[in-house]
Specification:
Strands 1, 2, 3, 4, 5 and 11 form a 6-stranded mixed sheet that branches. This protein has a 5-stranded mixed sheet with strand order 8-7-9-6-10. It has about 290 residues and is of the alpha/beta class. It has helices at about 15-25, 35-45, 65-70, 110-115, 115-120, 130-140, 150-155, 210-220, 250-265; strands spanning about 5-10, 30-35, 50-60, 60-65, 75-85, 90, 105, 125, 145-150, 160-165, 175-180, 195-205, 225-230, 240-245, 265-275.
Length: about 290
């Protein structure tokens, strides 16, 4: 993997939360902005980037549906995960103050997440395509009556002042990203290291197939942390699943569970095994 360009691709505009995640998780790589998730993912598949930082789910907005449809179309592997707490900042051009600001622009979700604070300040919300794009727009206008909601990185990149940090109404809003690579990287099984394994599969057309496919994880004491279903084709005839479990494929319990999954499911694909992210156990709060 080291012979590939030292680039990590992401979807969005420079200053987006995906860009911030790239900086935090892999500061040694150059972050490259792409127009779509597919563009970022296929950059990696073509060998034009070493990694891709792709959001899978958000604690407030839920899952990113498009990713589940894109993953089966690639041969990419999950080599890590990253959790990025969303810290919305109220940004203004240099010279802007609480007294001068009249409007605020951002992605509709960001506006909704800051609705109470927006109303408290008496600002008029204006929807934009994304947070970082809104920051870039107000930097170009240099109008002290306009503000944007975006990341602290957007403030740095577009030379804006941070009027208020943590502008969101509720704390705890977090996005989970998966880090994708072209080649698989199975980490060595080590004691006292917690691992995650992500699996995609389609169940066979037999009664109680999903119940039986997942039964092996229960009987072998393997902790299932996430199960998502999605339509694998436009015909709506086959349902596929994304499963996250705690464990390493070389552990005895996982081997037995995977054998049972293989028996009752088809098109089983281990997307990747990677270390459990520290965010999952921060402050004693296990995210399951």
């Amino acid at each position: 993997m080291t012979n590939l360009p030292a680039i990590i691709a992401y979807q969005g505009v420079p200053g987006a939360y995906s860009h911030l995640s790239c900086r935090k998780a892999h500061p040694e790589l150059e972050a490259y902005a792409c127009t779509t998730f597919a563009d970022a993912m296929f950059m990696v598949e073509r060998g034009q980037a070493r990694l891709a930082m792709i959001p899978l789910e958000n604690s407030t907005a839920g899952r990113v549906e498009e990713i589940y449809r894109l993953m089966p179309k690639t041969k990419l592997h999950i080599v890590g995960e990253h959790f990025e707490p969303v810290n919305h900042c109220l940004l203004v051009p240099k010279g802007g103050t609480e007294e001068t600001v009249k409007t605020v622009t951002s992605h509709p979700q960001a506006l909704a997440q800051c609705d109470e604070h927006i109303n408290e300040m008496g600002l008029e919300p204006i929807a934009s395509l994304d947070t970082a794009g809104a920051a870039e727009e107000i930097s170009q206008s240099n109008d002290p009556t306009r503000a944007a909601i975006a990341s602290s990185l957007a403030a740095e990149l577009y030379d804006l002042s941070i009027l208020k940090e943590n502008f969101q109404d509720k704390t705890g809003n977090t996005t989970r990203f998966m880090i994708l690579a072209r080649d698989s990287h199975m980490p060595k099984l080590e004691q006292n290291v917690r691992f995650m394994t992500s699996i995609m599969f389609t169940v066979r057309n037999i009664p109680a197939a999903l119940y039986k496919a997942l039964g092996g994880f229960s009987t072998n004491g393997v902790n299932m942390l996430k199960l998502e279903s999605y339509m694998a084709s436009d015909s709506m005839t086959a349902t596929s699943f994304h499963l996250d479990v705690e464990g390493h494929p070389e552990e005895k319990a996982m081997k037995y569970a995977l054998q049972e999954l293989d028996f009752f499911a088809k098109e089983v694909r281990i997307m990747g095994t990677y270390e459990w992210h520290p965010f999952r156990t921060e402050s004693g709060q296990i995210i399951e």
